[in-house]
Amino acid sequence: SGLSVLHFQDLLPALDGDLKTMTFLQEVVDILLAYITESFDRETKVIDFHYPNELLQRNNWELQDEPETLDDILISCRATLKYAIKTAHPRYFNQLSTGLDMVGLAADWLTSTANTNMFTYEVAPVFVLLEYVTLKKMREIIGWEDGRGDGIFSPGGAISNMYAMLLARFKMFPEVKEKGMSSVPRLAAFTSEHSHFSIKKGAAALGIGTESVICIKADESGKMIPADLERKILEAKQKGFVPFFVSATAGTTVYGAFDPLIAISDICKKYQVWFHVDGAWGGSLIMSRMHKWKLDGVERSVLKLTWNPHKMMAVPLQCSALLVREEGLMQNCNQMHACYLFQQDKHYDLSYDTGDKALQCGRHVDIFKLWLMWRAKGTIGFEAQIDKCLELSEYLYNKIKDREGYEMVFNGKPQHTNVCFWYLPPGMRYMEDKEEKKKRLHKVAPVIKARMMEYGTTMVSYQPQGDKVNFFRMVISNPAATFEDIDFLIEEIERLGQDL
Amino acid sequence: SGLSVLHFQDLLPALDGDLKTMTFLQEVVDILLAYITESFDRETKVIDFHYPNELLQRNNWELQDEPETLDDILISCRATLKYAIKTAHPRYFNQLSTGLDMVGLAADWLTSTANTNMFTYEVAPVFVLLEYVTLKKMREIIGWEDGRGDGIFSPGGAISNMYAMLLARFKMFPEVKEKGMSSVPRLAAFTSEHSHFSIKKGAAALGIGTESVICIKADESGKMIPADLERKILEAKQKGFVPFFVSATAGTTVYGAFDPLIAISDICKKYQVWFHVDGAWGGSLIMSRMHKWKLDGVERSVLKLTWNPHKMMAVPLQCSALLVREEGLMQNCNQMHACYLFQQDKHYDLSYDTGDKALQCGRHVDIFKLWLMWRAKGTIGFEAQIDKCLELSEYLYNKIKDREGYEMVFNGKPQHTNVCFWYLPPGMRYMEDKEEKKKRLHKVAPVIKARMMEYGTTMVSYQPQGDKVNFFRMVISNPAATFEDIDFLIEEIERLGQDL
């Protein structure tokens, strides 16, 4: 293609660089298109796995003083994709974010090409408007009156949750912004023992401290027990702490449990504690008429809700929204009035300069992929996609709950797409010594997982939880998955684990 | 093209969706390629500006229940780009991040296609390795022995600076992680009055409080005055504060000033305060043999350095690195041991599961575009690009410093590409009443800027600073800019401002 004698200087903005640029970019696109087709092909491996030291040696990844040719650059692109995880693969179930949406991908390519920043309307007019339109729509769906409120797209659910805690603290003690935690009594935050680790991470960062995050007991299926919340709020008050923040989870990471939001919100109201819902994983179920009852009470989240469209709605990474009920709160909490960005004498409506309410200065454009996918699917398209994933997970649950060699980690139908189970190899099924059995079972999932990766046939996550030894956590957010892929998964686990 | 009867369900993973997907994505790519060519064309407008309410009405941006056809999706893509800022345009100078690198763009398209997450080697094997390779290279360039140390790519310089402050606090008072700020004495952080607002924003978020950020005086050209730093550290100690953090700036946002790092680091050493360098804007000059003396002393930053390749190195947004000298510190400060991600019984070397040292859980892949551009340019290519921008800015400075109608905001050659100046329209040049002149001059830059945007010919930023009324801050990071574009800018300001 002639690219073997060309270098980056031959591309735009070089004079007469148009044609060479088009050739180069088209070659890259061809590589990407081939990768996409391959990713959806069940005959392809999910991953061509190599250990870190081996992968370091399989290619020259070093950075040099001298430039490479554009042909070399294409070679690097191919090598990178060769060893990448095919996250679009119908049998990739490893994380809460899986799949690759073609409209979302197109939108992300456009976003990269537009290459701008969300801080002001001045530099991102369309994207700022689309964020406005989309956040309003999301608030309407939650059920906040006329879709009123505020919100922001942030770099992931952990940061969204940190925002929520930050806002709750500021709302109760606005002087903390200037004076810091020394002006504030000892605070206490509450969240279930099954909640996401980002609540503790946020508390550590914000100077609240992880010991101020009080863990509330969850029931057998992973839902927060409201009575334990009330008891621990009272206990904290007695010890002189000021309860300021409850983070309920809509869709826990491992079990997919939905905390009872109505009961929790009643307690929050009674003790005047700010009520946040971490719906990073389960928030999207609000788009499903069949499943949204699991989020009943979410509209009472007086302060905010984390909702990650990059998970259950399969929007490309990253796309996480924080929705805030009170207008102006984020602005008051975070603004620093940088006069080089947020000039007050600009010629347009400054309410669209939303950057000062963020913790970030520059902020990546995460909105366009969600917006364009929403246009392509409509609300009903997202609903169908979500319903289908839940249907697949119910299919899996029904198939293994009484199947020989399987044991469910908790009883009853899962509320989200999380299906948590142990696979017991034949030799382990009738062991008498419970402790020995537990010890051996703990090692089964890691070995099967390692074999999955070495064969590259599928990927699913495992972990221990509390006193429960390693179990598989199957989750389905990949719109490419079918009933046949679920069948395959079961057979594959049995094939890879039968000799253990 | 047949797309007018197709919907998203016709695309992959649909059965036989390959061809339709290729057609759709290729159409999108064609739109993007046309936009790219147009963006580099000086005959095109930088922006087709409309006021927010008007832009809301010029297109249907609403989200509906029903899906749209793929043709409609292409129409939305075109509309979005029509009203977008052409950040690649050779005459777009509005922000510190400008330009569009073709290799960086290709890399970002690949990143979107790979659609994965940085938390573990398991799901991002290549990208985790490339982050490792690149951070090591960056540390070598700083001059840390054998490139040892740690680091992370974070969502922007503001978050990188927040990390730095978080690490400094943890290093001095590790109990803060569990016990919060109530276990810590009243802290004081120090930064120059010209530093970036993210230092205060970070202090507010971390529960330190903005009042604990003590502003150090800058000299006439915007550099921190070390004697004032020493005085204020002593003052703070006398008041019972514990000085824990000094953030020096390498390249301030408005003036582009480099704080005297050696003198500051000596003071930090003397008083045992952690020394951070915010090189978000100026850090990249370390890649230039001609300009890196401005960063002399950066290797002494005992703790960390923020360095944003998305600014002066023109890597697509977003790409910000935090480099940390001490190995293990980030991990100790931030880890929460989430057992569903960071299983300790995996089959590969767990030191590559870097996610737990981040504040984020999911983390966008920001490394590939920097890595691929580095391969394409080599270190010497980045150097040439940086040197050229500085050469252009010197050209601008020399051209206007004695030109009729211009006044420089500070004396002497700028250290970075920031050229700060007032343009005085003819009618204002000989005004006797200094106060009246100042008042009128304050209004000149906003009007010229508004006209620039309405004509769409160029964009450059303005702001007041301290007692200085609105002035233009020209910055050059756009590799597409030439001497002719600088000439054009001067003429355009004069054309748009002569009647004021």
TrEMBL record, chains A, B:
An example of a GO molecular function for this protein is: pyridoxal phosphate binding
Query: Subunit composition?
Result: Homodimer.
The UniProt entry lists membrane topology as:
Peripheral membrane protein; Lipid-anchor
**What is one Pfam family matched by this protein?**
Pyridoxal_deC
Give the top-level enzyme category.
Answer: lyase
Q: Which UniProt keywords apply?
A: Cell membrane, Cell projection, Cytoplasmic vesicle, Decarboxylase, Golgi apparatus, Lipoprotein, Lyase, Membrane, Palmitate, Pyridoxal phosphate, Synapse
Q: Does the keyword Nucleus apply?
A: no
Q: Which organism is it from?
A: Oncorhynchus mykiss (Rainbow trout)
Q: Which residues cross the membrane?
A: none
Q: Which GO terms describe its biological process?
A: gamma-aminobutyrate shunt; gamma-aminobutyric acid biosynthetic process
Family matches, as SUPFAM superfamilies = PLP-dependent transferases
Q: Give compartment(s).
A: Cytoplasm, Cytosol; Cytoplasmic vesicle; Golgi apparatus membrane; Presynaptic cell membrane
Please give the family membership noted in the entry: Belongs to the group II decarboxylase family.
Q: What does this protein do?
A: Catalyzes the production of GABA.
Gene Ontology cellular-component terms for this entry are:
cytoplasmic vesicle; cytosol; Golgi membrane; presynaptic membrane
Protein name, per record: Glutamate decarboxylase 2
Give the Enzyme Commission number: 4.1.1.15
Q: Which residues carry this modification: N6-(pyridoxal phosphate)lysine?
A: K311
Give the required cofactors: pyridoxal 5'-phosphate
